[in-house]
Write a structure and sequence with these properties.
alpha/beta; Nucleotidyltransferase, domain 5; 6-stranded mixed beta sheet
Length: about 200
């Protein structure tokens, strides 16, 4: 390779695909972004609904399978997922935590790095306000992504917002010399640093 072609290759922005997920046992939102340097393009987004009559364990299996299907289709480099929020309904929190865990397991099953973001962190990254409404988040995403419209489901726009938050956090971390953004948890790092804790007993 000539010096000129090497310089041209180095000047091209690195491409990465980010999968964002807003977990849930009734509806799971997802958004897929193509990251090219500091530019991002929305590739796909939607909301997957699960039959309310299904047994909870069957829903978890479906979450795992549908997450794997999205991964197989888009081949993401990283998964950004919204963290569980703390509420008064313990049963709802447990179900949401399981849904989140199953989606994370699907990504780890394909050796994809996973980063978790608190809901306030996502809103802050997208709108500048950690207490923004879902509608305000969706409105800001239109400008950030430069698209005419987004899926009507707030579950889908929440998932896109998580992916956008991860993009911003990654770029800020690169500028500052690495590290994970405040308000996030790098599950991939946990797996790499604790391999013995994931082995079967």
């Amino acid at each position: 390779m000539s010096v000129r072609s090497m310089a041209a290759a180095e000047s091209r922005p690195t491409e990465r695909v980010i999968l964002g997920i807003d977990p849930g046992t009734t509806v799971m939102g997802f958004g897929v972004l193509l990251e090219q340097g500091r530019a991002i393009t929305l590739l796909d987004a939607g909301a997957i609904r699960f039959p309310s009559a299904d047994d909870h364990t069957l829903k978890l299996r479906e979450i795992f399978n549908r997450t794997l299907a999205i991964i197989e289709q888009h081949k993401p480099d990283e998964l950004a997922i919204e963290a569980q929020f703390f509420g008064k309904n313990v049963q709802s929190m447990l179900k949401l935590g399981r849904a989140q865990g199953v989606a994370i397991a699907a990504a780890l099953h394909r050796d994809i790095a996973v980063v978790e973001y608190a809901p306030k962190r996502v809103k802050q990254a997208v709108t500048g306000n950690g207490n923004a409404t879902k509608e305000q988040v969706a409105a800001m995403l239109l400008g950030i992504l430069r698209v005419a419209g987004l899926p009507p489901s707030t579950d889908a726009t929440d998932a896109i917002a998580v992916a956008v938050c991860h993009h911003f956090s990654r770029n800020n971390a690169v500028q500052k010399g690495g590290g994970v953004a405040r308000g996030s948890s790098d599950w991939g790092a946990f797996v790499r640093n604790n391999p013995t804790r994931l082995k079967d007993p």
